[in-house]
Write a structure and sequence with these properties.
The protein is an all-alpha fold and 158 residues long. It is built from six helices and no strands. It is elongated and about 50 Å long.
Amino acid sequence: MWNKYKPYIISILISLGVGGASALLVRNQFAMYDQINMPPLSPPAILFPIMWTILYVLMGISCAMIYTTETAPESDKKTAIWLFAVQLFFNFCWSPAFFGLNLYLFAFIWLMIMWVLIIVMIAKFFTINKTAAYLQIPYLLWTTFAAYLNLGVYLLNR
């Protein structure tokens, strides 16, 4: 039974670990969220850790589904998991750029690259396991909303 769930547990823990490590790097800078000019529709700060936890769990499940799909060629699965890892690296680096260094324009550009990587990853996931691809849609939508907020912060605080 452990072998059945092991890829899911590991993948979820990796996703949550990357998000948690990024948040730990900038934990003292989150207070700036309440001190800067925010665009309309900005949610309360408490919503972010809740949303990101949900998204990281979905991302981990999705990646594990790709890993455990037996009908796909190994080369396709490796490419999909590599894309997952690359976009996760971009995800990890965004918080330090935005919160830690206050590089709002750079963070926005970085986020747009991440957004494209997420789309490419979803497209690759779709060729392997459609459900795994669909599980990434909330992440893409939240990243789109984050890009709106990031751009708004840049424009309102330069």
